[in-house]
Design goal:
Distance between the termini: 31 Å
Shape: globular
Number of domains: 2
Strand content: 5-15%
Order of helices and strands: EEEEEHHHHH
Oligomer: single chain
Radius of gyration: 18 Å
Structural class: alpha+beta
Largest sheet: 5 strands, antiparallel
CATH superfamily of the largest domain: CarD-like, C-terminal domain
Amino acid sequence: MFQSGELVVYGTTGVCRVEKIVRPGLSGADRDKLYYLLKPLQQDGVIYTPVDSPKVPMRPVLSAKEAEALIDLIPTMKVEACRPPSLQALAQRYQAAVRTGDCRDLVRLAMSIYVKRREAEAQKRRLGQVDERYGKQAERLLHGELSVALGIPPEEVPPYIARRVEALRAGQLSKAQ
């Protein structure tokens, strides 16, 4: 069970602070159950979710060391553009990747959509709406968590990743760092 004040990743909402653990007096809520009162860091509002709910994945935020190890994997990932037979299949595949809550899946998704974006730009075309929407969602979730893990603002995450990947490629950073 998480404690008040802890930061967690809650489903597709992203990083939230556990404000408190309560028995809410909300209609429709089981008054005998304990609920987390979560405050998302990147959006307004609050979320009540049962402490023992298996429906929405919730996990601790990556540590700084885990975040750096994830970034260090980026140059080794082989990613191709996802091209299923229909837009519905594409959306389902992207949605499945986002819902896992796994940062590696988010990195692969963002990289796959980046490949498609470059291909579209080379053909002087725009990226499709499904790709745009899920690309932004993957980046928002990933950058939000890495920002908290590394102690930097979300807008500094892309340059941080770029510098670290470049240093790895140049041999200036060992993977053990």
